[in-house]
Amino acid sequence: MTLYAALGAIEQGFVYGIMVIGVYLTFRILDFPDLTVDGSLPLGASISAVAITSGVNPYLSLLLALAGGFLAGMVTAILNTKFKILHLLASILTMIALYSINIRIMAGPNVALLGSATVFDAVTGFGIPTHFAGLIIFGSFAVLVVCFVVWFLSTELGQAILATGDNPQMIRSLGVNTDAVIILGVGISNALVALSGALVAQNQGAADVGMGIGTIVAGLASVIIGETVFGCRTIARAFIAALLGSIVYRLAIALALGLEIGGFKFNPSDLNLITAVLVIVALIFPNLKRRLIAR
After folding, report:
1. DSSP code of 230?
2. Structural domains in the chain (count)
3. Cβ–Cβ under 8 Å, residues 120 and 130
4. CA–CA separation, 100 vs 112, rounded Å?
5. Average pLDDT per run of 10 along the chain, which is 295 residues long?
6. Could you tell me the residue range of the domain that residue 136 belongs to?
7. pTM for this one?
């Protein structure tokens, strides 16, 4: 793997790490399996791209993407809490609806950002190369998101979210409206996913309706790898591990795609197979480790 490929993988690890943090919020903190992310990532991308091409400041477009993702998460949570639709089905319904909504927002399957202002202009204006600009911007956003989430979960409202995911009956007996807490938590999760999508679109120079396919798989793979490799004993460590897991996952993908064994070489079409193998290894490894220690 070349240095350029490694830098690109780390860059992707940071930007998709924001999405992974959102996935961690629902799957681990709230215990809410949420497939909305496959639709909320391109939602954030489409909102940001359309806003920028309409003359909106690229940083302001990120706030609009955050708002759009939050509303998408709210819809999923409301379907689950107020209408008693199973969380998996509710998220699938929202994800399906978002496919059409994203096309409506973009007035087509994609929107190009070639020649438009992006968040990278502030960095490249100082003469910093584009690939380093991506590392700086994505790394900064990822660190800020981790700090915000860790701080938020230490507040009274954040503690209510932690308690709702851990023991909803107990926290409900203390007078906490768990439905409102779930709606807020799932909304924040999808807002972060949409932010990731907006940054990806500005980096790639386009937003596409299909760019969210496989997002949830990559997110779960990163979460599992992060927990396995770095541990998750505290809240801060858990979210840092999720971010680092995203980087490790992207590096592993880049390494596998560049690997050649006896004339056999992986193709980009093998990405899902590589992801599945990585997740299986990450899931099996803790059990193997415990068995080896027991011996």
Report:
1. H
2. 1
3. yes
4. 18
5. 86 97 96 96 98 97 98 98 97 98 98 93 84 91 98 96 95 94 98 98 96 91 91 93 96 85 79 83 79 77
6. 3-212
7. 0.95
